[in-house]
Design brief:
Elements (H helix, E strand, L loop, with lengths): L3 H29 L35 H12 L1 H4 L13 E4 L2 E4 L16 H10 L1 E2 L3 E2 L6 H4 L4 H11 L23 H9 L13 H13 L3 H4 L17 E3 L2 E3 L15 H10 L1 E2 L3 E2 L2 H9 L6 H11 L32 H15 L25 H9 L21 H15 L8 H10 L1
Antiparallel strand pairs: 1-2, 3-4, 5-6, 7-8
The structure holds heme C (3 copies).
One heme C binds next to strand 8, helix 13, helix 14 and helix 15.
Length: 453
């Protein structure tokens, strides 16, 4: 009955519903109309064809007259296609690498030119669809673990040079394992909706208010090197949240640190030389050594780039807005005391110290400055100045995994030598002794980390 009382009683409900709908719509809009990767720079952007400064796409000067295949090889390195399409220690580009997600495991595919199990039947148009739109041959929607929302900015010419290079590889028969994704994540068609919302599907547009070096750096970092895929946090829909661009995120159980110019929690205190050294060799004195996914990015991709390209990338990285990360303090620059017995406060875990003495001190020293291996310095590194100790634990479990620079002085893997609780203890000891704040890692957390990478 429509008495005035009923009407009044219904109003708060309608009103509440209305607000909820408005909030939901606004939230969806906030996610969908999120800024693109280079939006922070503002300024006028134009189509590549209308840009009259030096072309930011393609290969650097030294390779301009190289063959299509050589240029394709360089670009394949720059985009690091091998990273995900290769199983650790397996045949390059043959796929099968596992991506462990909260709702199941998925696998990368074979991108060698095998007709049955690889991309041998791909036409140029098929290939561009996969790289730019996330649509595989036969209209199969690809999961965004294939970073097409970044590669979408790649020029057609560069993508096709990559295809030309991949098609010179030996075709390998290597079917990808079956994904084990739970419903509804096993519904590939949903990725069409995801793409409509989060893949801008457009090529790189140079910013005419920035110089050619900046534009080259932006192209390399965004369209090729896809740094944000690991270093930018994601929103609820798994899309990159560029409002926190490069502010750090956890990737495959490793912490991909804040690389904004924030001086304490980012890389603002690093010199340009530190940056290009780290990117080209995986190490910068007093800053740290890249391991895990970053070690791979260096070995497979960044160490193969020309100096001018690395310098352009550094120029670009410097211009990203600073974001402070609450739990990442300014790394401690002072080495620890040289004495073995030196106390490291209430967190001095005897068991951690015993492991350190037996298995680590020989290479890392008691001060954190290695007696003989420059890349083994712990003083000043982000990993020991991160009180979650995530990467410290990972590097102890897996070792340095620096395949390109493997040698007897590399960080060995201790995952099968030590128990979860021993790894937690030594990780806590190392952060307490060499960093700003002791970690409080537990055996359970170590057990969890083991399942992620
Ligand atoms: C961050 C990880 C990652 C990187 C880097 C990456 N891929 Fe992928 N790619 C994947 C995954 C995972 C799949 C499978 C997606 C699926 O099954 O939906 C895939 C699928 C593909 C496919 C579809 C193959 C098929 O079976 O139809 C092509 C083509 C492809 N990638 C090409 C490339 C190229 C070219 C590059 C470099 C420019 C590259 N990928 C870099 C993760 C990656
Ligand atoms: C596959 C994931 C991944 C990609 C792609 C990636 N990074 Fe990283 N990056 C990491 C991880 C993980 C670390 C931490 C490594 C460690 O602790 O040894 C890291 C560390 C770094 C550091 C050192 C930060 C510090 O405070 O020690 C810099 C600088 C860096 N990355 C720059 C880049 C740039 C530039 C790109 C793009 C060209 C890039 N990364 C691409 C995962 C990635
Ligand atoms: C054979 C020498 C060696 C031994 C033994 C060794 N390390 Fe390492 N460690 C290295 C080197 C070298 C690196 C740099 C990564 C690489 O090149 O493999 C490293 C890297 C690290 C890092 C990361 C540093 C960064 O820059 O982010 C940590 C943390 C670490 N080691 C801790 C330990 C602990 C704890 C032990 C004992 C359980 C240990 N290491 C044993 C040589 C060693």
């Amino acid at each position: 009955m429509n008495t005035p009382e009923n009407g009044r009683a219904r109003h708060p409900i309608l009103w509440t519903l209305g607000v909820l709908v408005a909030v939901a719509v606004a939230f969806a809009g906030y996610l969908v109309f999120a800024p693109g990767p280079t939006a922070f720079a503002q300024g006028k952007r134009v189509a590549l064809a209308d840009y009259h400064d030096k072309d930011p796409t393609g290969v650097p000067e030294e390779l301009k007259s190289a063959s299509l295949i050589e240029r394709g090889e360089y670009l394949t390195r720059a985009a690091d296609c091998a990273a995900c399409h290769t199983v650790k220690g397996g045949e390059p580009f043959a796929g099968g690498r596992a991506f462990v997600l909260p709702f199941g495991t998925m696998y990368s595919t074979n991108i060698t030119p095998d007709v049955d199990t690889g991309i041998g039947a791909y036409t140029d148009a098929d290939f561009l669809n996969a790289v730019h739109k996330g649509v595989g041959r036969g209209n199969v929607r690809l999961y965004p673990a294939m970073p097409y929302a970044s590669y979408t900015y790649m020029s057609d010419a560069d993508a096709l040079a990559i295809k030309a290079y991949l098609f010179t590889l030996k075709p390998l028969h290597a079917p990808a394992p079956q994904n084990t994704l739970a419903f509804p994540f096993n519904q590939r068609s949903l990725m069409g909706i995801w793409s409509a919302m989060f893949n801008p599907d457009k090529r790189y547009e140079p910013n005419v208010e920035r110089d050619a070096v900046w534009n080259r750096g932006a192209y390399l970092a965004e369209a090729m090197g896809h740094c944000g895929e690991c270093h930018t946090p994601r929103n609820l829909a798994f899309a990159l949240n560029n409002r926190q661009k490069f502010a750090g995120a956890v990737q495959a159980g490793w912490r991909a640190y804040n690389i904004t110019p924030d001086r304490s929690s980012g890389v603002g205190a690093w010199s340009d030389a530190d940056m290009s050294h780290y990117l080209s060799t995986g190490h910068a004195d007093g800053r740290g050594t890249a391991s895990g996914p970053m070690g791979e990015a260096v070995d497979e991709s960044l160490s193969h780039l020309k100096a001018s390209d690395l310098a352009a990338m550094v120029t670009y990285l410097r211009t990203v807005p600073s974001v402070a990360t609450g739990d990442l303090p300014e790394p401690r620059a002072a080495p620890a005391a040289a004495t073995f017995a030196q106390s490291v406060g209430s967190h001095a875990e005897p068991s951690g110290r015993a492991v350190y003495e037996g298995a680590c001190a020989g290479c890392h020293g008691w001060t954190g400055i290695s007696p003989g291996i420059a890349s083994a310095a712990l003083t000043g590194t982000r990993a020991v100045n991160d009180a979650t100790a995530t990467n410290v634990a990972q590097v102890i479990i897996h070792g340095g995994e620096r395949q390109a620079q493997a040698g007897p002085s590399n960080m060995p893997a201790f995952g099968s030598t030590y128990s979860d609780s021993e790894i937690a203890s030594v990780a806590n000891y190392v952060t307490a002794r060499f960093g700003t704040k002791a970690a409080d890692l537990t055996a359970d957390q170590v057990a969890k980390l083991r399942t992620l990478d």
